[in-house]
Write a sequence for this structure.
């Protein structure tokens, strides 16, 4: 399970959330293990049976106003009630004043307390987006990812089959490289897979016989992307006369990654076959399907109708004695 150190969270979100640490930095070493947030109103009132202490705690106007109504003894009891758990960190929104008791007891408990001028709604929205991304399921696959006419196309296949050469040819034709060799996938939503490269080899490419080339420097910023939604996979395979390959395209094929189904094409290759043009065709064909056009099914329906009409014509001609 991925985790996130509070210090890393602070570095990433300090400017966006306008965060200010109001107690000692001792709690920066704690780890955030949950992507969800929690408002501890009930827990502050003493009901801790369902207290999700392992989430980032958000104290908005409601919680702060409630604490302001307590006597010093009640406030001490209320805060000790939640701070006996290992809370990752606490964020007080709307620039509310932080009770001195909260600062002192959080220091004793080893939890950081931050203040932000943002409203609770805005803070929650931004923070949820960040944590959703950080805790999203991810994996790495061997392949090349290229933006072809706006379609994120993942090329896979055995080592040395020519994935990088196809990607380079597509870049030469004006398409954009996202990553070569290794593609990092992240599931951003139920049906969305985002692909990116590693920070080290992001836009470098290995072309066998030449070596490492730098696509960004060679072709400029127009030829690269940092990330792209992956919308289809094209697996390059060696041509074999013994294999059966899709001929009509009537039956759509899919492959799953991280619970997301991707349209999948198994493409046999042999010397002289123009894979680049075929890749562009696959992308354009996907665009047509987005607009409700399925050429293979349309052709099949037209063929079926033609055969029916031909049968009717033959029946008519057989009975036509005029």
């Amino acid at each position: 399970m991925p985790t996130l150190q509070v210090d890393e969270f602070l570095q990433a979100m300090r400017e966006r959330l306008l965060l200010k640490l109001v107690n000692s930095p001792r709690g920066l070493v704690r780890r955030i293990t949950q992507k969800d947030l929690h408002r501890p109103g009930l827990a502050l009132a003493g009901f801790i049976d369902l207290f999700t202490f392992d989430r980032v705690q958000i104290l908005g106007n409601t919680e702060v106003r409630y604490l302001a109504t307590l006597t010093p003894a009640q406030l001490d009891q209320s805060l000790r009630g939640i701070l006996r758990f290992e809370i990752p960190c606490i964020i007080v929104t709307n620039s509310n004043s932080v009770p001195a008791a909260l600062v002192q007891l959080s220091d004793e408990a080893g939890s950081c307390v931050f203040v932000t001028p943002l409203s609770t709604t805005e803070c929650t929205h931004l923070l949820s987006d960040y944590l959703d991304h950080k805790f999203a399921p991810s994996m790495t696959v061997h392949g090349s990812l290229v933006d072809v006419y706006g379609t994120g196309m993942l090329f896979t296949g055995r080592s040395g089959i020519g994935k990088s050469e196809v990607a380079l040819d597509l870049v030469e034709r004006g398409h954009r490289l996202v990553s070569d060799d290794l593609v990092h996938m992240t599931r951003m939503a139920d049906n969305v897979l985002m692909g990116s490269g590693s920070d080290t080899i992001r836009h470098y490419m290995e072309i066998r016989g030449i070596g490492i080339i730098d696509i960004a420097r060679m072709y400029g910023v127009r030829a690269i992307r940092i990330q792209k939604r992956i919308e289809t996979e094209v697996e390059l395979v060696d041509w074999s006369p013994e294999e059966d390959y899709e001929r009509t395209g009537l039956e759509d094929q899919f492959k799953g990654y991280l619970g997301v189904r991707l349209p999948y094409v198994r493409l046999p290759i042999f010397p002289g076959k123009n894979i680049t043009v075929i890749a562009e065709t696959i992308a354009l064909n996907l665009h047509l399907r987005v607009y409700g056009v399925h050429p293979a099914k349309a052709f099949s329906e037209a063929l079926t109708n033609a055969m029916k009409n031909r049968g009717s014509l033959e029946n008519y001609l057989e009975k036509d004695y005029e």
About this structure: The mean pLDDT is 92.
